[in-house]
Amino acid sequence: MSPRFKRAGLLLSLALQGCSLAPHYQVPEAKLPAHYGERVGAWQMVGTEQRLPAQWWKLFEDKRLNELQVQLEASNPDLAAAVAHYDAAAAYAQGLHGSLWPQASASVTPQRQRQSDRRPLRGNTQPSIYNSDTAGLSLNFDLDLWGKLRNQVAAGDAEAQASGDDLAAARLSLQKQLAVLYVRLRGLDVQHHLLGDALAHRTQLLTLIQDRYQGNIASELDLDRATARLSEANAQVDEAIAQRRLAEHAIAELVGKLPSEFSIADDQTPLEPPQVPHDLPSKLLQSRPDIAAAERRVYAANANIGVARAAWYPDFSLTGLVGGQTQGAGNLLASANRFWAVGPVLQLPIFDGGKREADEQKAVAEFDEAAAFYHGRVLHAVREVEDNLAQIGDLGQQARDVKTAADAATAAERIAMNSYKQGGVSLLDVLTAQLDALQTKQDLQRLQTKQVEACIGLMVALGGGWTQQPS
C-alpha cells in the first residue's frame, strides 16, 4: 500500500475513533431515605407489578372524568404548545447529527464579465467582454478528532430527551389540574345538595313560626330570626352555584372549550379516595418526568464542557473541489475545462482575547447549576410525596372525628325540632341545632374533598404512572 493511502487510512481511523474531552459522566448521586417517613394505613410499599397505571385517574372509576381527560389530551392548547416545543427540540437534535457526515454542495455560476483595460498582466489578445461559466462540487469533512461535534450531538440529544420529559411533566400537571377541579366541582354539587336540605328545613321552620305568630304563640323576634336564617341559606345556595360555575369554566378552558359551549351535569355522588400504591423512594428517580428532565440536562451540560474544551485544539478537516469552467460556449465536462483540488485543512486557534477560557468556565458553571437543580428536584419530589402522605393520614383522622360530630349534630337537630313543636325548647335552640348540623356536614364534605385532592397529589407526586424511556 502506498504511503499516501496509509496516511489517508490513518486520518480516517483517527476521525472514527476520535477522543472526547468531556468529563466522564455519572448520574448525580441523590441522597434518598430507605423509606418514607409518613406511613398511612393501607398505603404500604408495593412491588413494581403494582405501580400506578399511566391513566391514574381511572382509579376513581368516574366515567365523566375519564371523558374529560381524553378531551384534555386532544384539545388543550397548552399541551399542544408543549408538544410543538418538543417537536422543535427533536428536530434540532436530528439536525445536529448531520454535522457528523461529510458536507457536500454544488454551485453553478454563469457570468458575463468585462475586464478593465488597465488590468495588470492582461494579454493583448484577451477580449474585454466575455462569458464565464463555472460549475463545481465541493466537499468538506470535519474529522472531529477532539469530539466537539459528537459532544454537540450528545448535548442536543439530551436536551431533546429533556424536552420530551418536560412534555410528560406538563401533561401530568394539566391532568392534575383537571382532576382537582373536577373533584372540587363534585364537592360543590354535594355542598349544593346539603344547602338545599338546609333550605328546605328552614323553610319548613319559617312556615311553622308564621302559623304560630298568627296564632299569637310565636313572637315577632322568632319570626325575624327564622326569616334571617332562611335568607342566609338562600345566599349560601347562590354562592355555591357561583363557585360551581367558575369551576366549570376553568374545566372548559382545560379541555379547549368555550364556557358557553360546555357544561357538566350535576352529580351528588362524591368521589371516593382510592388506595394509591407507592414504592420505595429510590423509585422516584425512574418515575418522575421532572427528575428525568433535570438529569438529562446535567448530561447535556457535561457534554458542553467537552465542546468548550475542544476549542483549545486544532481543527482538522478534509476538503475537495471538482468542477469545470469555460469562457464562452463550451463543454464544462471536457477534460481541458476541468479543475479539481483536494487536501487537508488545519485551523489552529492562537489568540481570542480569553474567549475560550471564558466559554469553558461558563460550561463548567452551567454543569454545576444543572447538577444543583437536579438535587433540588429530587428533594422537592420526596417532600411532595411525604406531604401528601401526611395529608392523607391527617385528613382521614379529621374526617372520622367530624363524621361523629355530624351524626351527633344531625340527631340534635331532629330532637330540637320535635321539642320545639311541643314547646320544650326555644326557637334559638332549634336554629343553633340547624346551624351546627349544616356546619358539620359541610366540614365533613370539605375534608372528604381534600382527601381526594391529597390522593391526586400523591399519585402525581409519584409520577402518575409515567415510565422513563431509555436514554
Automatic annotation (TrEMBL):
Subcellular location: Cell outer membrane
Coiled coil (UniProt feature): 223-250
A Pfam family the protein falls into: OEP
Regions of compositional bias (Polar residues) in chain numbering: 104-113
This protein's record includes keyword Membrane: yes
Record region (Disordered): 104-129
InterPro entries: MdtP/NodT-like, OMP_efflux
SUPFAM superfamilies: Outer membrane efflux proteins (OEP)
Membrane topology: Lipid-anchor
Family: Belongs to the outer membrane factor (OMF) (TC 1.B.17) family.
Protein name as annotated: Outer membrane protein OprM
Gene: oprM
